[in-house]
Amino acid sequence: LFKRVISQSGTSLGYWAVAPKDQGIRNARKLASSVNCNTASNEQMVKCLKKVNASTIAERQHSFY
């Protein structure tokens, strides 16, 4: 019936949807630190996070919300 569909839903009224601009980078740094990634630069942090198992990231990110 459907091909190549991305199903999405949600609300803009969730506290996480209206977070301050810098909240995302703070959460990214917390996540990176929790999996022993260097947060000295965004480039290093992203490079390290890309190597982390997705299930580990999924487990750790719940503590930020």
TrEMBL record:
Alphabetical list of Pfam families matching this protein: COesterase
Signal peptide (residue range): none
Keywords recorded for this protein, A-Z: Glycoprotein
Gene3D superfamilies linked to this entry: alpha/beta hydrolase
Matching SUPFAM superfamilies: alpha/beta-Hydrolases
Domain (Carboxylesterase type B): residue spans on this chain: 1-63
Family: Belongs to the type-B carboxylesterase/lipase family.
Record's protein name: Carboxylesterase type B domain-containing protein
Organism: Ignelater luminosus (Cucubano)
